[in-house]
C-alpha cells in the first residue's frame, strides 16, 4: 500500500503530562503494574552543532585548495588508493560539468577542515560516485547538487563499505546519500534534501549490515515527490529497499515531509532503537512487505498530523497510523537476530493514531495489485510458480504473500490528548485488519480469509501496555471499531495485562 504525502506547518505541542493523572480509569481486574516505559530520548542535535574537523592537514594527507575549481577530483584521480585528502576551509567547487563528480579510489579518506564545503552550485549532479570500496568522508559539508529523481549525491553508485561521519549533506536534489553494504552513517546531518536524506537502495543485489547511528535527519523531501508523482512510494527521511541487517539507533528524525523511516520491500533483520522520531508529516515508521525486526526504546511524538488529518478530512476510515506495519511480520525461515517483529518499551505521545497492523488481501506475488512490481517474497525463488492452480495449495498459498504475523507489541506507553493533537475523530486508533479480498479473479485470497488470518490466526499480540487517553481499537476490517473491553474480550483477546485510563481529551 502506498501513501501520498502532503505538507503543512506543524505547531509545537506541549507534552501531555496531565494525562498521567487522568481519572476515569478502566483496566483488567487483574491488571499488572504498569510496565517500565522507555527513558526520554535526547535529540541528536547534529545540524546545529556539527563537530569540527582537523584544523591542520594530517601527516601524509594531500591538501585540496578551494581556490582551484576541480582540484578535489583532479587530485583524487592522480593519487593512489588509500590516500587521505584534507580540504582547506572555504567553498570547494567541481568543474562546471554535471558529470564532474569525484571518483574515489579504494580506501580513500576525505577530511574537511572547519568550514570546508563542497558546493555543487546547482550545476553538478553528483559529489562522490564510482564503485570503490571502503571510502571515508568526515567533517565535510556537501550541498547544492542536483541529482535526478531516485539518484543520490554522495556514494551515488552505492559502493560498499563507506563510512560517513560528522558530515553535513544538505539542500541537494534527489537523495543526499545512497547506501551500499556495510555502510556506516554516524553523527551526520542529512537535512533539506529534495527527495530522501538517504536512499538505501542498490540496483544489483541486496544491501547488508547497514548502520545508521546518531544522525539528525530532518526536513527532507523538500520537492514533495508524492504530490508530483502520486503513489510513487518514493520519499521519506530514509527509505530502505531490500536491506538485510540494519541497526538504526540514536537518531533524531524530525520534520520530514512524509514518513520519517520507511523500510519497503524485502527488508529483514532491522533493529530500530533509542531514536527520537517526531513531527514528521506522515508516519514515524513504515515497515512494509518486510521481515523480522526489533523496534524498541524509541520516543515517538507528534507524527502523522498532516497525513492523518488529510485522510480523515476525506472521510477515509482506514486507521492511518504512526507506526505502520504493512504485510510485514516475523518469519523463522529467514535468518535474522529475531524470528518475529517485536515492538516494546516505546513511548508514543500525541501522534495521529498509534500502531496499525495491515495486510492487503489483494497484494501477493504476480498480483496486479502488488505495488512492489516484479518483486516476490523471500520464500519463493521462482515468481512464476505463484499462479493458478499451484498458488491455491501448500506451500505456495502461504509463501506467495507477505504476511503480517508474529508481531509482539508489549511494554509500550501510548499517550493521546486530543486537545494537543487538535482532532475530534480518527486520530485515536490502534488496529489489526485487512480488506475484503476481491482481485484478481484467480486469487485464492478472496473474501475474509486474510482478515480472519491477521486478526486471529497469525500470532499478532498486544499485551502489558499502558494507554492514557481516549483510545479506540479496530479489528478485522475498518468498520469494526471497539472499545477497550471489546478489544480485550472474545474473540480478539488483545492487551492482556494492559491498563487503560480514558478521559475526554477534547
Automatic annotation (TrEMBL):
Renumbered residue ranges of the record's region Disordered: 71-91
Keywords for the protein's UniProt record, in alphabetical order: Repeat, Signal
Coiled-coil zones: none
Domain spans labelled Carbohydrate-binding/sugar hydrolysis: 158-312
Protein name: Right-handed parallel beta-helix repeat-containing protein
Signal peptide per UniProt: 1-24
Biased composition (Polar residues): 76-85
